[in-house]
Amino acid sequence: MTLAREIRRKAFHMLAGMSIPVLFYLFLGWQQLSGKPYTYLAKWILIGATLAILAVDVIRLRHQFFRILFIDFFGPLLRRHEISELTGATYLMLSSTVCILIYRSGAAIAAISFMVIGDAFAAVFGRRFGRPVLFGKSLEGAAACLVGCLLVGTAIVLLPGSGLRPLPMALGALTATLAEFAPLPLDDNITIPLLSGLAMHLTFTIF
């Protein structure tokens, strides 16, 4: 995949992926202002959307007509392995749902944002400026991932009502970077948000 195509892919990924934490934060704010359980509603909406996207992905893998139609629409945004496997978007929806269901709101919002922003920074800057040194990854990409996570994490810390503190955020950003760099067997869209969210959630609990 060329750098230009990777940039287009990551731009779409960022736009679509960041809609999840942004919308959940808005629901969280409405709940704090009104006292009504808007986050409960948001969780059910996310569950429904995740099941729908998972169903579409499974159907297009099993039926050639839908697979061709899917590739016609989204082919330029897919990696080669995603043609015959679940897409990264499906994995992101699944991990986002798990994060929002089991982690504190601030940790969940940050964990999903780390995946979207950090992974995009790592892919683009690593490909443009980096040289693979370990596991096919570059130190430049890892540094860009950490910077991206810290930037978006700091923004979330500063958001009114997010509940995210600097220490959990920083540990979550570091964990996200390590998860992106390490050769873990699961998709990055699963490992980065779940592991960084867990690190922040545990830090909240301990400290």
Description:
This protein has one domain. It has 207 residues and is mostly helical. The protein has eight helices and no strands. The longest helix has 32 residues.
- The mean pLDDT is 91
Alpha carbon gap, first and last residue: 43 Å
Global morphology: globular
Secondary structure category: mainly alpha
How many separate helices? Answer: 8
Name the helicity range.
over 70%
- Total DSSP E strands: 0
Rg from alpha-carbon coordinates = 17 Å
Mind describing the biggest β-sheet?
Answer: none
- Assess the beta-strand content as a share of residues: under 5%
Count of distinct structural domains = 1
Query: Spans with pLDDT under 50 lasting ≥5 residues?
Result: none
Which H/E pattern describes the elements?
A: HHHHHHHH
This entry's quaternary arrangement is single chain
Tag the structure with descriptive keywords.
single chain, 207 residues, mainly alpha, 8 helices, 79% helix, 0% strand
Task: Please write out the topology.
Elements (H helix, E strand, L loop, with lengths): L2 H32 L3 H25 L1 H11 L13 H15 L2 H25 L9 H20 L7 H16 L6 H19 L1
Helix pairs in contact: 1-2, 1-5, 2-3, 2-4, 4-5, 4-8, 5-6, 5-7, 5-8, 6-7, 7-8
Quick synopsis:
By secondary structure, the protein is an all-alpha fold. Helices cover 79% and strands 0% of the residues. The protein is globular.
